[in-house]
Design goal:
The chain is mainly alpha-helical. It has one helix and no strands.
Length: 50
C-alpha cells in the first residue's frame, strides 16, 4: 500500500469519527436538554448516560 492510500483510509476513518461525535453532541444538546424537568430517554439512555 502506498502512503497516499494509507492517508486516505485514515482520513475516511477520522471523518466517520467526526460524524459520530457530532451526532452524539446533537442528541445531548437538542434532543435531551438539561433542566427540562422531564425524564427523557433515547434508546433507554438518559442524558448523563450518553
Amino acid at each position: 500500500m502506498k502512503r497516499s492510500d494509507i492517508n486516505l483510509v485514515v482520513d475516511i476513518l477520522a471523518f466517520i469519527g467526526l460524524i459520530l461525535l457530532s451526532a452524539s453532541e446533537f442528541l445531548v444538546r437538542y434532543m435531551l436538554p438539561a433542566g427540562s424537568g422531564e425524564y427523557v430517554a433515547l434508546w433507554t439512555l438518559t442524558r448523563h448516560e450518553w
